[in-house]
């Protein structure tokens, strides 16, 4: 271990060591442990920044794995949570906020005439699949390779290029038998395979988990047409893209309206809340009460209050927030790619709206299939080098913008990228 790292991250190393004694693997979600050189123990967040237990300050592009679209301390969201707290915790009670939030979602998201709430994206995916199966009376689902839809047994397959099977130890290998895997972006495959035996096609409309790919021209439109022809439901997993690629998500950005949308992450501005939304027809099985939808924490008042406050800010400031986030992402990707080419370093960035992916690769990565060439270890070296320069990304290189990032943050990030490139240039020669 590097002596300078030991010193700089002393508190995080000490935290990790003590956490391991009772907290399984020292983290609450396995990927958090992959941060290089150590899982940073965060002390507090402030706008677009986080401060760790050693007092190191970072410009934060991890943003809690995506939810913190307004940054760590959005005043109106925090005020709404405090106000709600003044009336007690009240979970599992019917309250006014749920209907108000559903109405706000309907105003923002094209497909969202009706909405049901759960707490996490994984649960919302499970509910959406159940709605599709109950509504159609069919079982089979089409999923795309390297799209991620949460960790439940029945859909946790084909999460990376080259890994078509069940992805987790202990997963029921039978559970995902009703899933047919196809190549994301290839509408011809969908048209060839889809027939009246399928309940749904589920898709990340922009393949953010796979490496920030926007859909090829015509892909979503053709999948939309094919599902309509077969009476299968089209489900957009907008857990990342919802309220991020536009106020109305990917469906607004690309002009294709699904039957069902799965929303999460940015919806709650940082509190746990996810949703299934859809047309009146697609949601009828839920809105009639025929399909059982359960969960003690569904629609909990604190999360709902945070989400209402968040959507109000995004609605009021959409004209400034989205172009600015996207402009900053473009500026950073442009800078990173130019620097990398100039220095001959095999690191690149790809942008999709207010998200971008940094990766090291042995060759060009133009399509999702090319991500098989991504060098995961070298990517971790690069994101680790950025961390030492005060820039926090997801360990695997995925980055998000928030409304709290400033031009000064972007310029400081460019300086950090330049130094991290130098480190990479030295380590590859
Ligand atoms: N769908 C997508 C597209 C996601 O990115 C994620 C989480 N990264 C999920 C579903 C699962 O959401 P959660 O982690 O809240 O269960």
UniProtKB/TrEMBL annotation:
<protein>
    <submittedName>
        <fullName>Glutamate-1-semialdehyde 2,1-aminomutase</fullName>
    </submittedName>
</protein>
<dbReference type="GO" id="GO:0030170">
    <property type="term" value="F:pyridoxal phosphate binding"/>
</dbReference>
<dbReference type="GO" id="GO:0008483">
    <property type="term" value="F:transaminase activity"/>
</dbReference>
<dbReference type="InterPro" id="IPR015422">
    <property type="entry name" value="PyrdxlP-dep_Trfase_small"/>
</dbReference>
<dbReference type="InterPro" id="IPR015424">
    <property type="entry name" value="PyrdxlP-dep_Trfase"/>
</dbReference>
<dbReference type="InterPro" id="IPR015421">
    <property type="entry name" value="PyrdxlP-dep_Trfase_major"/>
</dbReference>
<dbReference type="Pfam" id="PF00202">
    <property type="entry name" value="Aminotran_3"/>
</dbReference>
<dbReference type="InterPro" id="IPR049704">
    <property type="entry name" value="Aminotrans_3_PPA_site"/>
</dbReference>
<keyword id="KW-0663">Pyridoxal phosphate</keyword>
<dbReference type="InterPro" id="IPR005814">
    <property type="entry name" value="Aminotrans_3"/>
</dbReference>
<comment type="similarity">
    <text>Belongs to the class-III pyridoxal-phosphate-dependent aminotransferase family.</text>
</comment>
